[in-house]
């Protein structure tokens, strides 16, 4: 068996993943609408031999609360498929994964846009399928309204199947067949007749076949139905596990489901998020972390803490005092309990708790030397918790630059990460099976 | 009054506008899926100081008839917004106009994609609004089906209004306001509450304001309701007039409608199509034209001729004989009559007629020296038939290269076309008024 390598994604987000990244002196505040910034960051990821860059999305502003919206930069001016098309022609190997929802479009249009990105990039496109749980998005598309979870997933299942059918309906070598007498060899086009409850498609995708068979499918399902959809259709799943035990449980659960759909263990890569803050020394890393934390406005931190705790408001309580006793809700009891327990255990004030949770946004955070960060990643990679990681740099470009310069060579030295790309397509680099046709 | 300059668009279409372009020895057959080809052609247009490049679209294959589909290359592998995002970062001044339909998406998503293109390009985006009359498209989006003309336009009116409202809902300077303490100045965001029969939007566009106020609106309305929509909302209209008299009538008609909506005569540019074949001498130009015509496969030409004549099939008649007598239909009587008359007047065979109409696809074709082509354009520009032209080069890149090298300097010498771009945004170069806000 060949050496097993971890897969790496670079989760790009405007100025950085840290909630106060845009206020840091190293930050480029208007990063979210600066295409040159995104191209530069994508090239850093490619220099680091990352499998892919990843762009999140929601078709709406992200915060209804003006305090949060005014002070917490999260999103970009760029719709992800447009952004990645511009990046595609400025990179050569790194995969390009765009988030897109199945709730407010139809399969033909989206399948076609991803086919275009795949052609533009020579086979590096990936689609992170989401179902859009946000009310703010639903209000922008009032012809539908926010559907309940089960309906969203029912629609997502159909949407994915119709898109896959469209991509598979065009064989390799359909256009400009040998001889040059005809433009298209119609025997290689297989019209799709896909009829479901939410969609119907009778046609042929207006595109050549993908250079990688079809675009890579990505998902981040956490619910049962979400994990099943991932096990059935996805090549990559992202996850948001804090502890190693949580990550192992998620990993085992998703891998177990693959058998149901006749798929092998290597056909789906599990890539949890990691938010690394790297310094040449542990002290330097911690100082970087503290510097970022200092920039979190109290209003933002406390409003986020309140939303994590499912309470309306915490502003009546002293910032430097402890959390008040509060009612429990069933919905997110475990996260609530985690916050309350941490506050009591470490004697943290509201301000301290707010900064703690706002900064990392609840993701797995590792602060340390290159060797310490590599240790943490390698441990989860080897112990059945991950096939790779989605790296969420706190600050762009410096946070990703640190990771590529300091951590990637360490992972390569240990033999757990590639030194060169295996190929030019995302599918080839991920090492996931091609669809049968074409 | 300052010198009046004509506006020029370069209508890009894979290997060329001539139906047999892809079979020509100078052609790059797989042009439609080669992004480097498109970037090179866009740069030729920019070198020629063109106002814009223009990408047509339909979300479907273009021909149901396999004879036509197999032999007549028309379309590209690239969805236009993706294609133009990739071109945006490889050009600096030329406008980028993508065709997109109002029939199969909702306003928020499309407004956001055009806002992204506008940000990516620094204010060079334009939207050619179409309503999609093709059944092939409707079959790909069966949740709706092909709507009758009046319903398509009713939907288009609402779609355009909602998109305009979203673009206008964000003021200049909303993000990163002076002082740097907040990410967004919420007093400059104006939530849209747009409720119509087909759409409802309650939200704020996730984008900064367009660098050109808002994207340029383009239309090609030929019906009454289409011309009214253009007069009310568009900055540019394309037209397909053959004769000067037709072009003048269309021009006067559209300009007259502007008053109804309180708009000035210069607020809407009328740009008919022209298919120029340019040679250093008239003989060379004619030879280029004949060479292209030779490549039209008889099956394609005759099938197209049959479709123009609204008859099922012409294959029972000798190719080198005259057209048979045929029944008239009301629908496109005038085009039918034009073909029948031309055949009789010039004694053309079915093959000759087929080539004549298939090659130019019914657009205004000018074959001649740079001076002859400039004469033809200048005449229509000065005689109230056009504010500019949408140039449909028969073959890419050579046909556009010929135009830029030979005809553009001639137009510049005559003082009817710019020598340098007036600015960096499409709106500035077109010289059309900015929307009020922002």
Automatic annotation (TrEMBL), chains A, B:
Keywords: Flavoprotein, FMN, Monooxygenase, Oxidoreductase. FMN binds at residues 57, 99, 149, 153, 223. SUPFAM superfamilies: Bacterial luciferase-like. InterPro entries: Diverse_substr_monoxygenases, Luciferase-like_dom, Luciferase-like_sf, NTA_MOA. Residues 21-380 form the Luciferase-like domain. One of its GO terms (molecular function) is oxidoreductase activity, acting on paired donors, with incorporation or reduction of molecular oxygen. Belongs to the NtaA/SnaA/DszA monooxygenase family. This is LLM class flavin-dependent oxidoreductase. It comes from Rhizobium deserti. PANTHER family: ALKANESULFONATE MONOOXYGENASE-RELATED (PTHR30011), C2H2 FINGER DOMAIN TRANSCRIPTION FACTOR (EUROFUNG)-RELATED (PTHR30011:SF16). It comes from the Bacteria.
């Amino acid at each position: 068996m060949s050496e097993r390598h971890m897969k790496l994604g670079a989760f790009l987000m405007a100025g950085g993943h840290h909630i106060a990244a845009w206020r840091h002196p190293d930050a480029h505040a208007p990063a979210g609408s600066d295409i040159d910034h995104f191209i530069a960051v994508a090239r850093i990821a490619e220099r680091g031999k990352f499998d892919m860059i990843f762009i999140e999305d929601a078709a709406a502003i992200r915060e209804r609360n003006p305090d949060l919206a005014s002070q917490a930069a999260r999103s970009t001016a760029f719709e992800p498929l447009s952004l990645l098309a511009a990046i595609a022609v400025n990179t050569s190997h790194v995969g390009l994964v765009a988030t897109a929802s199945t709730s407010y479009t139809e399969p033909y249009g989206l399948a076609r846009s991803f086919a275009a990105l795949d052609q533009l990039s020579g086979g590096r496109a990936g689609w992170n399928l989401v179902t859009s749980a946000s009310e703010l998005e639903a209000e922008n598309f009032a012809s539908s309204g926010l559907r309940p979870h089960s309906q969203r997933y029912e629609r997502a299942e159909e949407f994915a199947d119709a898109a896959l059918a469209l991509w598979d309906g065009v064989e390799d070598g359909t256009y400009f067949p040998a001889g040059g007498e005809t433009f298209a060899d119609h025997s290689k086009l297989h019209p799709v007749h896909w009829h479901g409850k939410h969609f119907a498609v009778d046609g042929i995708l207006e595109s050549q076949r993908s250079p990688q068979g079809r675009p890579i499918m990505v998902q981040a399902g956490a619910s049962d139905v979400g994990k099943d959809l991932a096990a059935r259709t996805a090549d990559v799943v992202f996850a948001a596990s804090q502890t190693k035990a949580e990550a192992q449980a998620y990993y085992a659960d998703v891998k177990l489901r693959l058998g149901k759909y006749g798929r092998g263990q290597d056909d789906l890569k599990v890539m949890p998020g990691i938010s690394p803050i790297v310094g040449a020394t542990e002290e330097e890393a911690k100082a970087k972390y503290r510097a970022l934390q200092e920039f979190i406005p109290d209003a933002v931190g406390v409003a986020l803490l309140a939303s994590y705790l499912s309470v309306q408001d915490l502003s009546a309580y002293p910032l430097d005092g402890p959390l008040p006793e509060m009612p429990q809700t069933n919905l997110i009891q475990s996260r609530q309990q985690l916050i309350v327990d941490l506050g009591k255990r470490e004697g943290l004030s509201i301000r301290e708790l707010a900064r703690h949770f706002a900064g990392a946004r609840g993701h797995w955070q590792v602060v340390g030397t290159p060797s310490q960060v590599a240790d943490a990643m390698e441990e989860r990679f080897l112990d059945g918790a991950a096939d790779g990681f989605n790296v969420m740099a706190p600050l762009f470009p410096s946070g990703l630059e640190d990771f590529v310069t300091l951590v990637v060579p360490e992972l390569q030295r240990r033999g757990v990460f590639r030194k060169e790309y295996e190929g030019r397509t995302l599918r080839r680099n991920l090492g996931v099976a091609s669809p049968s046709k074409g």
